Every structure is written in C-alpha cells, then in structure tokens.
C-alpha cells in the first residue's frame, strides 16, 4: 500500500513540475531581451499564431493566450533576430490606437487575431465584427469590438461591452 501511495505522490510531483515549467514561458518571462533568438522564443512560447516580417528584417509574432483567451502577447524581434521586447496588447492603450478608416491588417498588427467564436458577419449592414475578450482595469472580463466594412476591410467603429454570458468562475486573476 505504501509503494502505491509513494508512486502516486511522485507522479503528482512530476505533473506539478511540468505544469510550473509550462507556465514559466507562458508570456515569455524566461526570455531575455537582446539575447533570446527566434528558436528560443518558439521553444518557450510555442509557434506564433501570426507572424510579420518587416522590410528592415525585424519581425513581430502574435501569441493569443490567457485564461479564456484574455491576453495576447506581441513579441518583437530586431533585424538581428534577437528579442527586443514582449508586450501584452489587450489593454486600453492599444485599444485607443484603433481608429475609423484603419484597415483590418493594421488592427491585426496592433491587437492580434480576434477570438474565433467572436468573429461575425452581419449581412444586413455588410459588416464584419471582430471582438477580443480581455480583463479590464477592474479585473473584470469585457469585450473590445471592431466593426469593419465587409467589402473594404476598413474600420467603421469600435466599442466595448461587458461579458454578459452569465456567471462563470473568475478568470482575471481574482
């Protein structure tokens, strides 16, 4: 009986260690600006959902993450292929950058991809709606919405609304 209990404890300890190790690179906290390379970033954070190569050789990688997809990290690499910085972009400062007349490609570079289940097309208005679930400054889930003209891909309007899907367990660090 003692042996089974010890094996179970060892198994739980190993599982716990693996979980802690996996979370360590969640937002790239184990990476070093000026030193970490793209292969190290991918090794720590996984494959990016989106990547952009700039004319100067620098690169931007998008990593949607978080409990219930409430975070998106942008990773910026210099032309030398080394990490410049990592930024959590689902925050007010980034939302304020989205303006009417911007193209959806510009919005993607600022906020990353919208949640798959929060992308909708409204045929009567010929609008494409993208929404991002995020944790607001009160640590409560909220949506940031961008409405595009479906033909041109240009931003018509933006807005915010609370997450009204009913009570769920807290997922904004509460």
Features:
single chain; 174 residues; alpha+beta; Beta-lactamase Inhibitory Protein, Chain:B, domain 1; 2 domains; four-stranded antiparallel β-sheet; 25% helix; globular
Beta-strand portion reads 25-35%
SSE order: HHEEEEHHEEEE
Count of domains: 2
How would the global form be characterised?
Answer: globular
User: The CATH topology of the largest domain, please?
Assistant: Beta-lactamase Inhibitory Protein, Chain:B, domain 1
Question: How would you sum up the major sheet?
Answer: 4 strands, antiparallel
What is the rounded distance between the termini? 39 Å
> Low-confidence spans: pLDDT under 50, at least 5 residues?
7-25
Specify the helix fraction band. Answer: 10-25%
Verbal overview:
With about 170 residues, this protein is α+β, with helices and mostly antiparallel strands. It has 2 domains: about 1-90, 2-Layer Sandwich (Beta-lactamase Inhibitory Protein, Chain:B, domain 1), CATH 3.30.1450.10; about 90-174, Beta-lactamase Inhibitory Protein, Chain:B, domain 1 (2-Layer Sandwich), CATH 3.30.1450.10. The protein has 4 helices and 8 strands. It has a 4-stranded antiparallel beta sheet, with helices on both faces. The protein has a 4-stranded antiparallel beta sheet with strand order 5-6-7-8, with no helix packed on it. Strand 1 and strand 2 (about 60-65) form a beta hairpin. The longest helix is centred in the N-terminal third of the chain and has 23 residues, at about 1-25. Mean pLDDT is about 85; it is low at about 5-25.
